[in-house]
Automatic annotation (TrEMBL):
Superkingdom classification of source: Bacteria
InterPro entries recorded: c-di-AMP_regulator, YbbR
Gene3D superfamilies per the UniProt record, alphabetical: 2.170.120.30, YbbR-like domain
Protein name: YbbR domain-containing protein
Lineage: Bacteria, Bacillati, Bacillota, Bacilli, Bacillales
Source species of the chain: Salinibacillus kushneri
Pfam families: YbbR (PF07949)
Length: 412
């Protein structure tokens, strides 16, 4: 052993081994043990890895400019020795970015850059270049509105009152061209996400839209609002009135038309219910009616109110055979005759007309000549003979005919 320790070749070998051990120890402390292994014992093989969804940074003066057209992520492919590729993929201590700091506002094709990769790696980024638009930054203040979606989740008869928003003012920041397009700033309240009867939302998201309702890519401050919406409930029983359209077939007259039930319950805001006296825009087409019967008709919800119950009713139609009744010698009144002038009737000579009324037997039982008045208007007529239209009033809207439609008169 003493001979070995004194031998120069032995001392050289031990020194070499100590130097190698020291080098390996330092390399391990620098987290490059695998790289050292490749340096000392090259394997001669490369590996390739593609990393997706790598965040793309943008370097620009954000106080002055905004950028459009920048994707959030890119794909990065690296090629090199397996140990370096594996370490790089695991640690990811690199940056991928667009350098826009020396560019003016406008449209630019910019190459994607990177830093922090091992010099022994080949790096390929997809896409390699990106078209961006740089605009001067603009900020404007707006008053937010509330947009409530999924209102069908409200219970029957419930309606929304006036929303309370906090804060009311929103600062919107973006490119000047986008700020100029802003038409609406809304806080979105989704009733699907409301638990309970109270609408009290702490984080209603703010959306910014143009005139066509397209959402704009701008920054809202704050980006969410506190919204409270009172819920009101009201209801009222309202009578129905059914109108008719079309004509019954020849030989039939309408005896009666009624709704079953005669009234419905309307739900909605109290102030609107107070002014509602009846629902009259229901109609029945008589042209297809041949006998007594019932027809189901929908009840429309009055404007601004929530709903009606029931939503359909039965129209009870009672028809009878048509009969007629003639009312004779109804006098013709004269209106508009100038003072000092006389008028005489040439036709009809007796200054009366006969009216034939059509209807059901029950309707015509009590009808008399007093239900009708006949008159002519001769205002503006002077001396001579004239034809004047006979106006017949019919308060009950009976169907009728008369034996004269015009009167021939002489004025002196």
């Amino acid at each position: 052993m003493d001979k070995w320790l004194k031998a120069p070749w032995f001392i050289r070998i031990v020194s070499l081994l100590l130097a190698v051990a020291l080098y390996i120890s330092v390399s391990l402390n620098d987290n490059e043990a695998s790289g050292l292994e490749d340096t000392l014992f090259p394997s001669g093989s490369n590996d390739t890895v593609t990393m997706s969804n790598i965040p793309l940074q943008v370097r620009i003066d954000e106080e002055k400019y905004v950028v459009r057209g920048v994707p959030q992520t890119v794909s990065v492919a690296i090629e090199g020795s397996k140990s370096i590729v594996t370490t790089t993929e695991r640690v990811r201590s690199f940056d991928v970015y667009l350098d826009l700091e020396n560019l003016e506002p406008g449209k630019h094709d910019v190459r994607v850059q990177h830093e922090g990769f091992n010099n022994n790696l080949s790096v390929n980024i997809e896409p390699q270049t990106i078209e961006v638009v740089i605009e001067e930054r603009a900020t404007k203040e707006y008053t937010a509105e509330v947009d409530v979606i999924n209102q069908n989740q409200l219970d029957d008869g419930m309606i929304l009152g006036e929303p309370v928003i906090e804060p009311e003012k929103i600062k919107v920041t973006g490119g000047k061209s986008e700020i100029d397009q802003i038409a609406m700033v809304k806080a979105i309240v989704d009733l699907n996400e409301i638990d309970g009867d109270e609408i009290n939302v702490d984080d209603a998201p703010v959306k910014v839209y143009d005139q066509q309702g397209n959402e704009l890519n701008v920054y809202a401050d704050p980006s969410a609002l506190h919204v409270e919406i009172p819920v009101e409930v009201g209801q009222k029983e309202v009578p129905l009135s059914i109108q008719t359209e079309g004509e019954l077939p020849d030989g039939l007259s309408l005896q009666s038309l009624s709704a079953e039930p005669e009234a419905v319950t309307v739900f909605g805001q109290e102030s609107l219910l107070n002014s509602l006296e009846e629902i009259s825009n229901l109609s029945v087409d008589l042209s297809s009616v041949k006998k007594d019967g019932k027809v189901e008709i929908p009840v429309p919800t009055p404007p601004g109110l929530t709903k009606v119950e029931p939503s359909t009713v039965q129209a009870n139609i009672d028809v009878e055979e048509t009969v007629e009744k003639t009312l004779e010698d109804i006098p013709i009144e004269v209106n508009g005759l100038e003072d000092g002038r006389d008028i005489s009737f040439i036709e009809p000579e007796n200054e009366t007309i006969d009216i034939t009324v059509f209807g059901t037997e029950k309707q015509l039982q009590e009808i008399t000549a007093e239900n009708f008045t006949a008159s002519i208007d001769v205002q503006g007529f002077y001396e001579g003979e004239f034809d004047a239209e006979i106006q017949i009033s019919n308060p009950e809207d009976y169907e009728f005919t008369s034996n004269f439609n015009h009167a021939r008169v002489r004025i002196e």
